[in-house]
User: Fold Sulfotransferase from Lynx canadensis.
Amino acid sequence: MPLPLQPAALQRPQVAPAAILAHLGHQVLRAPPSRVCAHFSPQWSLMPRTLDGQITLEKTPSYFVTREAPGRIHGMSPDTKLIVVVRNPVTRAISDYAQTLSKTPGLPSFRALAFRHGLGPVDTAWSAVRIGLYAQHLTNWLRLFPLSRFLFVSGERLVSDPAGEVGRVQDFLGLKRVVTDKHFYFNATKGFPCLKKAQGGSRPRCLGKSKGRPHPRVPEAVVRRLRDFYRPFNRRFYQMTGQDFGWD
Ligand SMILES: Nc1ncnc2c1ncn2[C@@H]1O[C@H](COP(=O)(O)OS(=O)(=O)O)[C@@H](OP(=O)(O)O)[C@H]1O
Assistant:
């Protein structure tokens, strides 16, 4: 799950829009460069052409946790650069729950879903919990891609210092640092940073209503148990990436 990198913050002629393709669950990897279209199923051909000197940017959070994704992306282009936005897995799980709750009124409580039988061990079969096991998912990718192909973006810093994190993304993609802190402002109503102007427009642009919604209250004891559960996985993730995300 990774978080939204405000795509508008990266818009410029070298960055081609990702196509919206017929979605076949996790079976289709959306938006490959046009040169591979011929080798794949007809869905690929819906892709826009990527011109020389352009970068095609595709954003599908679920790829990071999809077993088949590393092999398919590597088969398509082993040089693909991979950007993973991660946040504290406990907050991520609650955010995930808040999103499901907004679409499924009457959902059991967070606690009932997070622990087997509501009180037992942490239920790693629940996707909101499983997705936060970043070290495990990354292991799957590192079988095919070297660490140098990855950029890990801190979801927390994306909120506290959006220009800093977007700056790292621009460097990683070999783009000029066009977007800087003068492009962002803190919107007190939204409670998040927003762009002062959307590309081609003159009005400020915040992310939509589904980003940055209030979280349900989760008992402190539940949060503590989950934090303890994730600690060893987080440590492993810090070792693997060489980055301390400061979640513990
Ligand atoms: N600038 C800005 N504005 C609004 N929201 C921001 C921003 N930067 C990061 N975030 C965080 O993005 C979280 C939602 O991301 P999603 O997981 O829904 O994104 S995605 O659709 O999976 O890409 C969302 O999580 P929640 O707060 O749990 O809703 C935000 O915390």
Notes: Residues 58 and 86 are 17 Å apart (CA to CA). The pocket of PPS is lined by residues 1, 3-4, 61, 95, 98, 158-159, 192-193, 207, 211-213 (CB under 6 Å).
